[in-house]
Specification:
Elements lengths: L5 E6 L5 H15 L2 E6 L6 H4 L5 H26 L7 E5 L4 H9 L4 E5 L14 H8 L4 E4 L11 E6 L3 H14 L3 E6 L14 H10 L3 E6 L5 H14 L4 E5 L2 E2 L6 E2 L1 H9 L4 E4 L1
Parallel strand pairs: 1-2, 1-4, 2-3, 4-5, 6-7, 6-9, 7-8, 9-12
Antiparallel strand pairs: 5-12, 10-11
Helix pairs in contact: 4-5, 8-9
């Protein structure tokens, strides 16, 4: 089946960036596609400087500092990939990191990003940076946990299924990683969501997965509140030894005023394996 034409990975100065880049490189190698590093780090709002004397001098100094940091990150990115037999590109733009990143990753077949790490100051890029990638890019985003090493991806996966648009898109977007895998389909419905008449049954997901050679098991969970569903997904992923979760990302709001759904928030805060989100 067709794979990803490209894998884009977010590069910053966080402690976990090397794990993220290595995973993205392994996926790109397996998919025989190009890898693109998209550099985005914290950029202060220019208006913060205008309260200071000689604002233009401080603005220029801060810009030069960011450019030096981005050059260091570029060198580290290339060094990490030195022994990888893949085609790699580097993209870095000065300015609003959310706007620039969204502009770049709309081209991606798959985006690899990092779980927010509140213990690492270098991991902070901008308000709702990851939320914007998940909800505004229109691309599948594989979020990598910051606190664990990643040995495999997609060999044994859990698919969270409610038959809606978001999870359907996530499953289709994940197929290049799930071909030939062992997949546990967890069918569960949030109590506050009424089941749509056009919701697809779990059997549809199972047939699609079998079409790409996956070995599928299906489990039906009880309707529950959002947080309980998030905890159930994490628990069942651990029980079946999953090395990836696939799920739809729920949320709403306009750009920079985004609100993630409760299940999505729970997974992002407590994830222990890479999770592919699609909205």
């Amino acid at each position: 089946m067709p794979g990803y034409p490209s894998v884009f990975v977010h590069v910053d100065a966080s402690r976990s960036v090397t794990t993220r880049v290595n995973l993205a490189a392994r996926i790109a190698a397996a998919q025989d596609c190009r890898l693109v590093g998209v550099c985005a780090t914290f950029t202060p709002e220019p208006r913060w400087f205008y309260r200071m004397d000689e604002a233009s001098k401080y603005l220029q100094a801060d810009r030069e500092r960011r450019l030096r940091r981005h050059e260091t990150l570029r060198q580290q990115f290339q060094s990490t990939l030195a022994e990888q037999s893949i085609t790699a590109e580097w993209r870095s733009e000065d300015g609003d990191p959310v706007v620039n990143t969204l502009k770049e990753i709309k081209e991606a077949g798959l985006v690899v990003a990092g779980q927010p790490d509140e213990t690492d100051p270098e991991a902070y890029v901008a308000p709702q940076f990851l939320e914007s990638m998940i909800l505004e890019s229109g691309r599948p985003v594989l979020v990598v946990p910051y606190a664990v090493s990643i040995e495999t991806i997609g060999t044994r996966a859990l698919v969270a299924w409610d038959g809606g648009r978001e999870c359907t898109r996530a499953l289709h977007d994940a197929l290049p990683l799930l071909a030939g895998s062992e997949v546990h389909v967890l069918s569960v419905q949030a109590m506050r969501h009424s089941l749509r008449q056009d919701a697809a049954p779990a059997s549809s997901a199972a047939r699609l997965l079998r079409d790409v050679g996956a070995e599928v098991q299906t489990e039906f969970g009880p309707a529950a509140a959002d947080m309980a569903i998030g905890e159930l997904i994490l628990s069942r992923a651990a029980d079946c030894g999953a090395d990836m979760i696939v799920m739809g990302a729920y949320g709403h709001g306009r750009f920079r005023e985004l609100v993630l759904g409760g299940v999505t928030r729970t997974i992002l805060s407590s994830m222990t394996v890479p999770t592919l989100f699609a909205h």
